[in-house]
């Protein structure tokens, strides 16, 4: 099948393997790209140059690859941008914070620029700012992001108002999910959690087992994940992850999270996740 995504990157399948800093590996990115999708690497505040370059070299073996950057981390230290440009990815997403200033330098380097949006207003703003493709990430998405609007409602409203290509994101893990976002009019799916199960990823064996054992009600959403990692995530981007018994360190993180500004997204808005 052909969509903007397959045509732009020469793919045989409209699927992007989402960037996951600390977890996505060059091996997985290469495997996805070799299978006809687009594999991505994640770079975050704890990424360091040499291991990142090594992962890019592995990812590049399959040809094209993408990189995901965190805008809030670049606001503290932007050294990663030059490093990424030098590695020549085909696609770079800059998400979660003030991404606008990175659009032109990345595009000038011949890179397609994406950002993840979680509301209709964010989609409008990103189109206005000049990104090439919108990643419409609904509240069902794994990792960090807004939980304000669910995937299908977000995708439908964004597709109605923007002219840019849009990828559907959040809770897509099967061919049925991919078919749904394509039928809605997106150019493809951006998939994160489902790829955590792949042996090529740096997911620990224990985490993989928890993932396979998780029930449909087993996701929690809140600030505790970022606080537990002692990372300065902006409060509007909570994290989604496996609901788990509260260990002592997690309990401490939860109390720290409660003392800070609460996460702005509301439960009961279409997001099935429990709040932490
Ligand atoms: C463990 C994990 C780590 C993630 N790390 C990043 C990241 O470093 N950069 C980024 O832009 N998105 C990151 N994401 C979010 C994904 O890009 C994407 O929005 C999300 O995985 C989509 O939802 P899904 O997991 O339900 O497919 C991460 C997601 C997960 C599950």
How would you describe the overall organization of this protein?
The chain has 276 residues and is an alpha/beta fold. Helix content is 39%, strand content 19%. It folds into two domains: 4-196, Alpha-Beta Barrel (TIM Barrel), CATH 3.20.20; 215-275, no CATH class. It has 13 helices and twelve strands. Helix 2 (26-34) runs parallel beside helix 3 (49-60) and helix 3 runs parallel beside helix 5 (79-87). The radius of gyration is 17 Å and the shape is globular. The protein starts with a helix and ends with a strand. The structure holds flavin mononucleotide.
In short:
With 276 residues, this protein is an alpha/beta fold.
Classification by helices and strands: alpha/beta
Distance between the termini: 41 Å
The fraction of residues assigned to DSSP E strands is 15-25%
Mean pLDDT comes to: 90
CATH architecture of the largest domain: Alpha-Beta Barrel
The CATH homologous superfamily name of the largest domain equals: Aldolase class I
Strand order of the largest sheet: 1-2-3-4-5-6-8-9
The main pleated sheet reads as:
8 strands, parallel, barrel
Domain module tally: 2
Helix content: 25-40%
The outline comes out as globular
CATH fold call of the largest domain: TIM Barrel
Helix-strand pattern, N to C?
HEHEHEHHEHEHEEHEHEHHEHEHE
Q: What is the gyration radius calculated from CA atoms?
A: 17 Å
SS field, number of helical segments = 13
Ligand names: flavin mononucleotide
What is the level 1 CATH name of the largest domain? Alpha Beta
Low-confidence parts, pLDDT < 50 over ≥5 residues?
Answer: 262-276
Number of strands: 12
């Amino acid at each position: 099948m052909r969509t903007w995504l397959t045509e732009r990157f020469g793919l045989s399948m409209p699927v992007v393997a989402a960037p996951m800093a600390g977890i996505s590996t060059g091996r997985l990115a290469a495997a996805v790209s070799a299978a006809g999708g687009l594999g991505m690497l994640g770079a975050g505040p704890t990424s360091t140059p040499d291991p990142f370059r090594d992962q890019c070299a592995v990812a590049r073996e399959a040809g094209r690859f993408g990189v995901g950057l965190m805008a809030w981390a670049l606001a503290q230290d932007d050294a990663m941008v030059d490093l990424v440009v030098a590695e020549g990815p085909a696609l770079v997403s800059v998400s979660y914070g003030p991404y606008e200033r990175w659009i032109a330098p990345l595009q000038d380097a011949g890179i397609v620029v994406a950002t993840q949006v979680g509301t209709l207003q964010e989609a409008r703003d990103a189109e206005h700012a000049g990104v090439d493709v919108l990643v419409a990430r609904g509240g069902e998405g794994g990792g960090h992001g807004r939980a304000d609007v669910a995937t299908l409602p977000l995708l439908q409203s964004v597709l109605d108002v923007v002219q840019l290509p849009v990828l559907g994101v959040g809770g897509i893990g099967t061919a049925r999910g991919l078919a749904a976002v394509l039928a809605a009019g997106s150019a493809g799916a951006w998939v994160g959690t489902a790829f955590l199960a792949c042996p090529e990823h740096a997911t620990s064996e224990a985490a993989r087992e928890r993932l396979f054992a998780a029930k449909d009600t087993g996701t929690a959403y809140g600030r505790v994940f970022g606080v537990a990692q002692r990372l300065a995530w902006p409060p509007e981007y909570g994290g989604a992850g496996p609901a788990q018994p509260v260990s002592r360190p997690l309990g401490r993180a939860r109390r720290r999270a409660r003392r800070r500004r609460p996460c702005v997204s509301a439960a009961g808005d279409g997001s099935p996740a429990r709040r932490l």
